[in-house]
Amino acid sequence: MIAIAILFIVLGALVKYGKMHFLIAGYSSLSSSEKDRIDVDSVANVFRNGFFGMAAVILAAEVYGRFTGDLTIQKPAFFAAIFIGLPYVIIASNLKKNR
């Protein structure tokens, strides 16, 4: 689970700070006039926040599980992070894409 959390952190950082906007689905296939209408920085912020949030939930469950010895919390926390985080990223990025 830690590897997945690290992957989310890396992806969020690459999109926001590495300016790898081609990782945003559909962005690289847009024409340059369509790209000009999209506020890609705010969309990148949404992706960073969503991926960092999902990683935080997964890491918190991992730390809690190792600290208490109860590893049964890890799977529900992982699925909660995915099922809450991905809709957030999809919906919020679509709301913030137009300037």
TrEMBL record:
- Keyword annotations of the record: Membrane, Transmembrane, Transmembrane helix
- Any Pfam family hit: DUF3784
Q: What is this protein's name?
A: DUF3784 domain-containing protein
State the InterPro entries in the record.
UCP037672
For this UniProt entry, which segments traverse the membrane? 49-65, 77-95
Top-level taxonomy: Bacteria, Pseudomonadati, Bacteroidota, Cytophagia, Cytophagales
Organism from which the protein derives:
Algoriphagus oliviformis
